[in-house]
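Next comes one such specimen:
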Amino acid sequence: MENDVIDLKSLSADAPLLQYNNWTNLKAKPQSRQKHNAILKDQHQPIKQHQKQLAFHRSLCKSRFVFGGNRTGKSVCGAIETVWYATGLHPFLKIEHAMNGWVVSLTRQVQRDVAQAKILQYLPPEWIVKTIMVSGSSFAPAHGVIDFILVRNVFGTVSKIGFRNCEQGRERFQGVSLDYVWFDEEPPEDIYDECLLRLLDCGGVHWVTMTPLKGRSWVYNRIYLRQEQQPDLACFWMSWDDNPYLSEDEKRFLMSSLPPEVLESRKYGRFVSAEGLVFPNFQTENIIEPFVIQNPDALYLAIDPGYRNPTGVIWLAVIGENLYAVSDYEVAGLTVAEHSRAILQRTADLGWKIKQVRILIDSAATQKTSACEISTATQYRNHGIAVDANVNKNLAQGLLEMKTLFGNAEGKRHLFVFKNCVHLIGELRGYYWGDGEQPQKINDHTIDALRYIVMDWQRVNSEPTASLNTLGRAKKDLIKSLAGKRFV
């Protein structure tokens, strides 16, 4: 459908034009960018640009995931990127040779009706050298199932776009080397892994365009929850509102035709199991790029101790009404002495003086065990970390306070997490309710540390400033005169 797409050539606006005069084998040349612009200008038709699609195409990451609802333009990203790789006409990336790639669909029918149809829509017929069919006629490839297409490229050679579907099984994905793979919708994990092996020899790339309808699948656990831990991975979200080609009438029609339980995934591209999340309002807006903290109102450090289970630590700065988790730490199997050295070093690396930081620890750390007569809290104090175990561990209240800070009903956010806090971000995204009113007690170590800080900050923030009476002021003045020093 035309209204859910971007114009193929309109994306080349900022790219230098390629020269075609050396194409000895190309009988028909594609329309140039200048001519295309002139036509639109004469017709007074402004060029629409889908900004989320542009961000996807500009990304240089080897692994790219587009999470989008229906009609958000996600499949167009995959199709146009495939065409650009095959022809060598990519406006944002220098391609230096002929490309051999795959387009992977879930079934043969989906291949024919979606991915294959999009490729044929955006690949100019004069660039096609040959089309090999699995079924149907090459004279009408849109009505059959394509095996592969040979495509002319800017190097005067031929590239290959192959088609695979997951019904064929993992064995059908073995034995070749590839430059790229486009997965149209979420594939089975074994097929995804097999395709990654096909990319190793060529240092290839892959992109996945999908509507996340399978809940907490392998993509959720392996990609979504751990995206900040993978530097060569980029994730993009597309909603109806991001698509400039979708009219308000069409949005209203789609809204009325979809049941509420699937609206989150179909409209916004969010995982459908998000209704079980403890913090569903923890979104990408809460994750920010690190910046230098200057003149903070308060500095916090909180420890959730463990040995077989990891010890989780959070460093947090308060600036006005906003809280910023600036660093995290999660390590298992170390002694208190080893954790203390790491904590002191991290604090120094942040430029914080440990004596200026309020340090909290789980109250359970004050208990002695049969294995050690010195409590964990005392051990930390002996290593120069003055922990305070007087923390509010009211779980329900703490979770409510955190949820409110992540985003209230008006959309205001006051709790932010630096992008480098990969342990905390992963835990927040995977923190689900269990049976009854309790969250699942799994992977919550940095969350607990953050909760101690939030509850302490709320306590301090809600305490009224005590005013001195006349006698109190007189005592303070007397103490100042006797001590001979300035009091604040």
Q: What stands out?
A: The radius of gyration is 29 Å. The first strand starts at residue 63 and ends at 68.
